[in-house]
């Protein structure tokens, strides 16, 4: 479900998270590894009020591993620990409690020094934009199905702590944040990756944006997938990009009467296969 974010929703979402901050030691900020800028909330630093935080780059299985490495270094420069993982299969998930402990080490050591033998588990809250994988990660950490997938910022229910091993506890309801919307590129990127529904924008325009990007940065896997022969020479020529979309449409049998390509169908096909990782791993934002 896609949320329409209005100022009132944003204020409410922010207030809900800040209420929860009082209960926890650490925030797990979930972002999409393919879109480390656009999938981050623009006010995150302000909202979290200096709470210790781990940035989790989810869906790392779909992202370009080289670019993900660059992002980890970039976050490190900013003083943030970033952890790539794949909540859907669980790859990397076991590192999360380990990193949480490392981040809270000083606090735990202080408790031990005070003679507290069994410091209580680290309490954590997952926050992130819709569709970034919050529910998937909560279920994965819990080892069972807790969180319903899908988001409703207005709906609250009784909160519970989920035990993650013996040293961490997680609030069962994540904090839902809005993405960056400030420019059109951001909207397109979020739509390409499926973070927002492409119907909000025009599906052909979203696919056009994706194809242009793939032609520029990931031509080989893209061309392999659809057996495309000729790489467009002029990226700024819309006709050349549309020609690629038509070639994909023909390959996939997206045709209308008279043998013309059904560009809308071709667009949906491109986006579906891209999101499913069929064209290989790609990132849409690099840290430079
Ligand atoms: P939420 O809205 O933040 O709670 O997101 P969900 O947990 O509902 O996940 C949104 C979609 O992303 C679902 O279709 C998940 O299966 C998928 N997903 C979540 N984590 C991953 C991941 O690490 N890799 C991949 N490929 N898909 C993921």
TrEMBL record:
Record bears the keyword Transmembrane: no
Presence of keyword Cytoplasm: yes
Main subcellular location: cytoplasm
Q: Where in the cell is it found?
A: Cytoplasm
Per UniProt, residues of the CP-type G domain are 14-179
State what this protein does: Required for a late step of 50S ribosomal subunit assembly. Has GTPase activity.
Q: What is this protein called?
A: Ribosome biogenesis GTPase A
The organism is Paenibacillus lacisoli
Taxonomic lineage is: Bacteria, Bacillati, Bacillota, Bacilli, Bacillales
């Amino acid at each position: 479900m896609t949320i329409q974010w209005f100022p009132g929703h944003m204020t409410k979402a922010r207030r809900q998270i800040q209420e929860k901050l009082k209960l926890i030691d650490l925030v797990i900020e979930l972002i999409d590894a393919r879109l480390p800028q656009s999938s981050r909330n623009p006010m995150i630093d302000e909202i979290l009020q200096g709470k210790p935080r781990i940035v989790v780059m989810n869906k790392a299985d779909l992202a370009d591993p080289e670019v993900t490495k660059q992002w980890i270094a970039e976050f490190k420069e900013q003083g943030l620990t970033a952890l790539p993982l794949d909540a859907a299969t669980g790859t990397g998930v076991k590192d999360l409690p380990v990193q949480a402990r490392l981040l809270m080490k000083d606090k735990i050591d202080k408790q031990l020094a005070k003679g507290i033998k069994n410091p209580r588990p680290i309490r954590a809250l997952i926050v992130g934009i819709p569709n970034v994988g919050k529910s998937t990660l909560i279920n994965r950490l819990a080892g069972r199905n807790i969180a319903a997938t899908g988001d409703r910022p207005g709906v609250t229910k009784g909160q519970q702590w989920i035990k993650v091993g013996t040293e961490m506890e997680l609030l069962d309801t994540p904090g839902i944040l809005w993405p960056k919307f400030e420019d059109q590129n951001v909207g397109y990127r979020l739509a390409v990756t499926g973070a927002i529904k492409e119907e909000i924008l025009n599906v052909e325009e979203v696919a056009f944006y994706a194809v242009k990007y793939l032609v520029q940065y990931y031509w080989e896997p893209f061309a392999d997938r659809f057996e495309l022969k000729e790489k467009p020479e002029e990226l700024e020529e819309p006709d050349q990009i549309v020609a690629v979309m038509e070639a994909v449409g023909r390959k996939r049998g997206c045709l209308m009467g008279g043998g013309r390509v059904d560009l809308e169908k071709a667009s949906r096909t491109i986006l579906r296969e891209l999101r499913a990782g069929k064209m290989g791993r790609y990132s849409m934002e690099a840290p430079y």
